[in-house]
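Q: Fold this one first, please.
A: Sequence and structure below.
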Amino acid sequence: MGIAPNLVREKFLKEYEEWCKTDKEPALSSKDMRYFLDCNEKRLKEKGIRVTEEYAVVEEDITGDLDRSHGDYVATVSYRECRHNTEYFRGDKSIKKISQPETVYVNVLDKFGYEDFECTCPNCGHKTMASELSGGCPYCGTMFEIAQTYPCVQSIYSVQGIMDRVEFPRKIKKRTITFGIICGIILFLLTFFTSASEYVIWFRILYSLFLGGFCGAVFAFIFYMATSYVLLVKALRLAGKSLKLLGGINTRKKLLKAMEQVDPGFSFELFEGKILGKLRAIAFSEKRDDLSIYSGDEDLSYLDDIIKMSYRGAIQLKRFRNEGGYSKIKLRAFMTDTYARGDKGDKIKLKDETFEVECERKSEGIFDLGFTVHAVKCRSCQGSFDAMHRKACPYCGKEYDLAEDDWVISSIVRV
């Protein structure tokens, strides 16, 4: 095995943040994920928008890895708490900032026995390890195709939290004490200078101290309760928005049970990452008619204003059936989509949306968990080619059916 999943996660997050700033592709991203990032990058440039993201480390963050082995591969969901800072720019002008506590999830795929290998640039002759060539030759910039390297990141998403678990209580305590002290001082001064002048000075001081201290404590308590009430309202509001996500609680268990007879090596985590990646790739593609990953005929023009699709952490299984030798799945994907609207495209709007997605794949067979649509093999002449926008082999002309090897989305409906 290669790098530990948590180290892959941290290295990838840094690469992803760098991609936001410089468009340099994350070296650890899978080939399929790179395609989605390229499409997303083109959409942003088309809209004249630039987005920067930061997954800032928070104090005493909770982290972890969920590993599941499948044949030659191990799929890991590596996560940690963070503060996710997002900023939208038009030119050099900042048009929207969002900063909120989240838990970020990175899906890592590794392959047993895999070893990185050395590649030689066909242009300048420089020798570099394959894992370092996702952005082209570091010396001359020449781009060339290489096989998928491992470990790689299949997908990334984050789930919003209510507050910074450690920092927020500390801030509330500090603000409550500060508010109480300020109120106490004000009450002390008011009482001292407005009390009857015939009282002796020590009595006026003691009386003012008592009243200021008592009222300061009362106001501090009121401030704390008011802050707690605001936090409760925020929690209830977030819970209300998340109610529909409860339908996805048992989806993993149901789908694993449904698939165990036809594909014992089925990985829910990889399936989830693939469907999200394909949904995003379809949304950001300029030409959807020739995509091999999409066989539907719906009008998806409403997706053309989306500049960012964020997964809310849940999909809901609606229906599963085996029909004509194919496994057909209907599910709902819960997303938060960012739209760039307005005459100048500078109106940034976030909207929670649900997509009903239908997908299918051949039911039985031995499936390569590391399969990528960008390096398929023709069953007729064994030629290798990128099948993302090509439905026929460029060498022999035989039509290629992606559903023989991987999931194909057959329908997308916004509900």
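Q: Good. Now the second chain.
A: Here it is, same layout.
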Amino acid sequence: MKKSLFVLLLLPMLSACAQDAPPPAKEGEVLGDMTIEEFEPRSTLVVPENIVTKAKFPFVDAHSHWFRAASMTPGAIDTLIQEMDEMNMGVIVNLSGQSGEALQGALSNMEARYPNRIVTFANVDFEGVGGDNWTENAVAQLRTDIEAGARGLKVYKNLGMDVMDVDGNRVSVNDSRLDPIWALAGEMGIPVLIHSAEPASFWKPRDKFNEKWLELKLRPNRYRDPATNASFEEIMAEHYDIMAKHPNTTFISAHLSWLGGDLTKLGEMLDTYPNMVTEVAAVIYELGRQPQHARQFMIDYKDRLMFGKDSYNVEEFHTYFRTFETADEYFPYYRKYHAQWRMYGMNLPDDVLRAVYYGTALRVIPGLDASLFE
């Protein structure tokens, strides 16, 4: 009885609220029902814009992937080179060279047509670690791949996170059974571009404080449950441990070593491991939100930094050029779920641009044609 009375008393109040409510949204207008995933405001700020579609100096994209390199048509390869020329890209590094026959196919299909413009890295298949003669066979195959023309080794993020040995145990990045692989790379003078872990936010609670919340909402498989996964700190400690154990091997720590948001710490890592360099692939959003601090960092460590992009999309390169070469303010990043913030240009000095665009790569990756950058 009391509940019915409460409802009767509430109905007039609800009716009054409805009369005061704003009119329904017009066609094409989304208000209260809009989700945060849909929210994409257009800035009303009017500031100078300098869109850069061609890098000031020739550059090496040291982090790219061509999963079907062996089967790319001559026309597709010619188009790639044309686009590279339009961006002022001197060399592109295909990190997805694979191994054995697949590597041979990539080398003969892409590098044979443009031997000075396309460089291929080999990959090691970590399936079967711990099996009979696995280490010896992996080392022998890598040696064969290098002798065939691979100019580096790319290690994917599954090592340390998802790779299991034959006994079902996680294979750590610094597993001693892999030491001969890193040693061979140093012996044969090729760099190891290694991607370990993912952004630390992927291990944190998916709550309102996590700045990667939107990415984890849209890509839920990227979340790493701390209860069932090795921690970010553990994986990265393993990552740096192989650099300490193999000082004669050059390691390219991918994606600013996931320290783009803590450049002071990244500088400490570079100081600690003189055989380590890093690159900016897929993390330009970190540098673009702290232009003054990042500018000084890049000036201080210009000879330890390389250009890289990761996915290949011509228009996305323009954001990198603009961040490095202009002093523009408050411009958008090209992928909202990676970064909800706006970017600022660093207006880097020419000597820093040259070092990052090609100087470090010429020193680290064997066989690059220096005349392309003169």
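Q: Anything worth noting on the second one?
A: The chain has a mean pLDDT of 92.
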